[in-house]
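Tyr recombinase domain-containing protein: structure tokens wanted.
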Amino acid sequence: MSTNDHEWTLSNQVFSDLCRRWGSPQLDLFATAQNSKCEMGLSLPTLKVYTAAVVAHQPANSPSADLFKHPTLKQFLRGANSLRPHRAPVPPQWSLNLVLKHLTRPPFKPLATIPLHMLSVKLVFLLAITSARRSSELAALRSDPPFLQFHPEKVTLYPDMSFLPKVVSHFHLSQPLVLPTYFPSPSMEVEKTLHTLDVQKALLFYTSRTSSIRRSPRLFIHVSGTAVGTPVTAQTISRWIIEAIHLAYQLSGTSLPASPRGHSMRAVASSSAFLKGVPLSDICKAATWSTSSTFTQHYKLDVRARADTAFGRAVLSYSLP
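Answer:
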């Protein structure tokens, strides 16, 4: 047994053994546990996760396998939602335009000579903002073929086969990152400046410059210290994203209105693309949301108000003067 959130909890193996010996527990046992979680202030989605974990350990033909259909539990979850309705978080207050503008300037250029850490920070930010993927998904990307494919007008990336996304389903497991090239053949000065935001160009420089220190096929690796060449964690990815925002504001001499969070990238990227006219279906596909309700409910957008690469191209257009 172990303690968690000031409660005694059974390990998965012990729980399964008890179910096999004594049969499936009655609903009121879980309602009691759920009530204690509700008193702790947990939201409805979190309570549903706890319930889903219970259901996952039940035999397919067990009555407990249909817990979500039980009228008592349905009534409890409705009540929990009434007590603590979902509230959309405060929208991120940092400026995407400001950050993209400074990504086109030193110390984020030229890509051939800037420190590898700066190149890592810039590439992570560009991938995050043009894909709206979670940090865990970015950390799972690989740098070797066929997981990384360069094309004339786009670049396609796939995560490691062992990676399991937050939501494990066929839809979420089969969505690659398809990102656009950005002014691949610049002619005017403004196009040359914007070309410095090209994800494909940044990827080419990053994979080339890190090839001699690599000890892992994962795309993002430590570029210094004792762990050099080994893959970074999702927490490091988030930290790099925040570092890019902080550095851009420092260079501009502007104070950040609030402390940014790595996950705010999904809100900024998806909302920016939506306001640029990208179809909601393309946004959901890019951010791996199986339905539009996740987007519209979470960010409170009015859905009334091109292909795979439309998402990333629309977000990068915020850098246009």
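The chain has two domains: 2-83, 96-319. Residues 232 and 264 are 20 Å apart (CA to CA).

Cheers.
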